[in-house]
């Protein structure tokens, strides 16, 4: 199994991309070993000393480490657990949107993309299927901001969270 590791702007987050689908759809989020319906594989990943939580998406596994842990030590252990993890055994897929998932998705997928161009994002709230955000940094006022908002930010949220209908930007008052 081929695993590609992506460093993100956040030193406490690493994304692990596998050369095969991780999940068919939905997501699985495990905040700790006590998470309801935590699969055996997720427990094994979370048992790596220094990890805080794991987010499993259709195309990747994103791990969040504790502040004092070192990814140089953690990465080989995480990779070993991922290789041994039978993702097909995850039965309890989540399709509901919550603040924790929105924030995890921002950290794992959206913010790293925006940071590459000097931008950032702030999630303000989630109401009636709409994620309200504020683009920051170089994204604010950029002539391509609407394109980024619809083609990247909104598309990413809709891909992973079925209850997201749209994303709207609120301007600073």
Measure the end-to-end span. 50 Å
CATH topology label of the largest domain? Ribosomal Protein S8, Chain: A, domain 1
Going across the biggest sheet, name each strand in turn: 1-2-5-4-3
Largest sheet, described in full? 5 strands, antiparallel
Helices and strands, in order, run as EEEHEEHHEEHE
- The tally of strands reads 8
Q: How many domains make up the 3D coordinates?
A: 2
**Count, helices:** 4
Approximate strand percentage: 25-35%
CATH homologous superfamily name of the largest domain? Answer: Scaffold protein Nfu/NifU, N-terminal domain
- SSE-based structural type: alpha+beta
Q: Uncertain spans, ≥5 residues at pLDDT below 50? A: none
Task: Give a structural overview.
The structure is a single chain. The protein has helices spanning 40-46, 71-84, 99-115, 145-160; strands at 3-7, 13-18, 28-30, 51-57, 60-65, 119-127, 130-137, 166-169. By secondary structure, it is α+β, with helices and mostly antiparallel strands. The protein has two domains: 3-89, Ribosomal Protein S8, Chain: A, domain 1; 99-169, GMP Synthetase, Chain A, domain 3 (2-Layer Sandwich). The strands form two sheets. A five-stranded antiparallel beta sheet has the order 1-2-5-4-3, with helices on both faces. A three-stranded mixed beta sheet has the order 6-7-8, covered by helices on one side. Helix 3 packs across helix 4 (145-160). The radius of gyration is 16 Å and the shape is globular.
